Amino acid sequence: MVVLxxxxxxxxxxxxxxxxxxxxxxxxxxxxxxxxxxxxRVVDAGEDGLARLDRIIRxxxxxxxxxxxxxxxxxxxxxxxxIFGFPDYTTLRQRDGRLELxxxxxxxxxxxxxxxxxxxxxxxxxxxxx
Length: 130
Known about the structure:
Pfam families: DUF1499. It comes from Roseovarius halotolerans. This is DUF1499 domain-containing protein. There is one protein chain. By secondary structure, the protein is α+β, with helices and mostly antiparallel strands. The protein has helices spanning 2-15, 20-23, 49-58, 114-129, and strands at 33-35, 38-44, 63-69, 74-80, 87-95, 98-105. It has a 6-stranded antiparallel sheet with strand order 1-2-6-5-4-3, covered by helices on one side. Helix 3 (49-58) crosses helix 4. It is elongated, with a radius of gyration of 15 Å.
């Protein structure tokens, strides 16, 4: 019985629908830093920063767009953990040459720093590519 419950929970985590109305959002006032379920980064990236970072994220394993576009100036992605497929949501917004990145976990009370590490890897790749 316990095994069936565990398998059911794993299936739910992987198959639960992701509602863009819930996840494709960005708070108006962001404070850069880490929190228990995610992280926020704000960086100067130039007017094409969103397009450049979008290409990096689309090349990232287990990350795909949920809603938005470069043309809209805001995009939300789902990134899933390798083994259990836990979904994390990252919303990017371009404002006057600055990129705002807001990453958060859907399940649990802590993401164990995974979202902050992912944002930092993406931003490092962005800096390296110029």
